[in-house]
Amino acid sequence: MIFQIGVNGFIHSQWRGDFYPSILSEGHMLVYYATRLGAVEIETSFLRMPSATTLDKWVYETPDSFRFALQVPRRITHQKRLKDVAGPVQDLLNTSKRIQRKLGALKFQLPANLRANGERLKQLFKVIPATIPVAIEFNHASWFDENHFDCLRNQNAALVVNDTHTRATSSPLATGPQAQIGTDIVTADWTYRHMTHSVYETLALEQLLMQATDSHQVRSMLFFTHANNGPHIASQFQHMTPKTQRLLR
């Protein structure tokens, strides 16, 4: 199991004097961030994809083991709602090639009011090569059935796990819509998790580490998303993982 641990974004001025040195400029934040954590989820790509120059700079400034998760632009998920998206998806793939092997995932966050549509999901995967790591966040309960899970499995696409509706002191693996099913659903040989609370007991993090390690999956992307405490919890969890499980082999 390889752990790729991080938070949402790396340009946060409020982290100066806390996670970042107080005088650190925005232009040097990624370099510093990559010395502390092994992955980052880029949310700004939801509004606009980074330029080729920016992506090249990110690749240059990070170690070989670092990984980026790009949130898919809203044009695909929220405006077109996965319908007739072959063109925009190809544009996305062409742009994301700049990241090369450092692309940890393309994360599709579906709208909360988008009901299940298996045909659109199948058409989406027809235009995405199986070699591209894809994570899908379902936000309407109608998506949670075996037909859609099998569609993800055929692509080795990860179902995004989100702990928004759980207590921080309980098992961090039960999730929103998935809690209705009562099991942790496996759709790929890797996982993608959002950890949203401001505080996690050490025991909860230990349980997370143990369950992830025992899953026999290849890798786990975990993003601690709390605006203030996220980087500190992510750093704590990263230090709990064996160093050999943070490096890609």
What is the terminal-to-terminal distance?
11 Å
Low-confidence stretches: 165-183
Query: Per CATH, which architecture?
Result: Alpha-Beta Barrel
| N-to-C series of helices and strands | EHEHEHHEHEHEEHEH
Question: If you average the pLDDT, what whole number results?
Answer: 90
- Class by SSE composition: alpha/beta
- Large-scale geometry: globular
Oligomeric composition of the shown chains: single chain
Give the number of helices. 8
Helical coverage, percent range: 25-40%
Q: Main beta sheet: strand number and arrangement?
A: 8 strands, parallel, barrel
Can you offer a commentary on this structure?
This protein has 249 residues and is of the alpha/beta class. It has one domain: Protein of unknown function UPF0759 (TIM Barrel, Alpha-Beta Barrel), CATH 3.20.20.410. Helix content is 31%, strand content 18%. Helix 6 (146-155) links the parallel strand 5 and strand 6. Helix 5 runs parallel beside helix 6 (146-155). The protein starts with a strand and ends in a 9-residue tail after the last helix. The model is unreliable at 165-183 (pLDDT under 50).
